[in-house]
Amino acid sequence: MSTPIKARVGVLGAGQLALMLAEAGHQLNIEVICSGRPGDCASRVAPLVELDLEDPQAVQTFSSKVDVLTLESENVETTVLDGLANLAPNSRSVKIAQDRLFEKDFLRFQGVQTAPYAEVSSLRDLHHALELIGAPSILKTRRLGYDGRGQVRLTHIDEAASAWAHMGGAPCILEGMVPFEREVSLIAVRSAKGELAFYPLVENEHRAGILRVSHAPFVDQQLQTLAEKHLRAVLLALDYVGVLTVEFFVVSDKLIANEMAPRVHNSGHWTIEGAETSQFANHLRAILGWPLGSTASQPTVMLNCIGSMPAEADTASFPAIHRHDYGKAPRTGRKVGHLTIPASETELIEEWRRRLED
Ligand code: AMP
Known about the structure:
By secondary structure, this protein is an alpha+beta fold. The protein is built from twelve helices and 17 strands.
């Protein structure tokens, strides 16, 4: 006899994050319903509602059919978020996180350090920002930038006109380049009942703006305490419910926030095998007001598969490898899956890092 469904969660989107939320939902008897287009990768494991994510009425109707509505991307039209009573995280959190200017203003207000930045809406603004911030610096679109897209690096102030032309008139910010030693992220979760939990800091390696490898945990008690203090402040200020991720640059004993994601995050995929409760299960628990699961974890490494998946026969011959194939068509620069390996398997990790470099 099948176990009755305990709750129904809707997800705006049907990509790989929705897919992994749905997989976590199966184990908790939570029905996760995704919204998107047929063929989106979550549709392999979850019911799919075909939805125009820019249509407020359609989204409203979808939300009325589920206990809680959540999202897998912050890049949702803000007009569809307003008035959704059962949305978690709330629309204010999403609106802040989807705009780099709002995000940095907000983080600073919470006492979290960021790179120096300035708003840029014209070439004139960019010249002015460069006087303040100088070069090297990065011009980033305020919205819709991810995995290094919507960014151009300036090595000299003479490059202002070409950098601005590259952005095609989109509202931007100019950010000072941070001479970081490493990049880390903290994944936190706050439940609808106000319960809080944190995963250990993770060290992340990016190439060309795309996450390649996450090492969990990154052990530094002082930075862990500082990161938790920052996320606690952010979660409470936003009355946030669900998983929240903040990416930081480490500069000696300082944490400089780069960006926050109001959702489960690629740097938390290792938690599926590496933690007692995955970020996906804890996100579902949090938004439903259930008790959170333990975030106790084992040292684990996650390798992203970018562009294409390795052959199944190759990964299958290593029992220590957990393979996650999102079922996406191969495409340059696209995240199509990931591998999780216990951190103790150092030689295996080195071998697969090499194999996955394209
Ligand atoms: P983002 O799209 O903001 O996450 O940036 C992608 C990657 O570019 C980051 O993970 C960093 O490796 C690098 N990056 C972005 N902003 C800065 C910055 N202000 N200083 C140094 N590196 C940066």
